[in-house]
Amino acid sequence: MxxxxxxxxxxxxxxxxxxxxTMLKFGGGLLMGGLTSLILFKRKKWPVxxxxxxxxxLAYGNCERELKSILTIAPASQKV
Length: 80
Fold this sequence. Notes:
By secondary structure, the protein is mostly helical. It has helices at 7-40, 46-71. The protein has a domain at 30-64. Helix 1 (7-40) runs antiparallel to helix 2. The model has no long low-confidence stretch (mean pLDDT 87).
């Protein structure tokens, strides 16, 4: 017999995944912004911040979609 998964456990796993995804995308954005800054813009700071912002924005969108899928309640079927 299968053990049912608890709502809190599933929500916790989604939050953990969101935090890991945010750190990964933030770091990738910093890296890409830093490389762009070194290669194209003669060591300006703004490409680093833009890259980090894009990374956090992408992670936010992914987290919002994942958490919305678990937090929405399926509508009950209506009989007419």
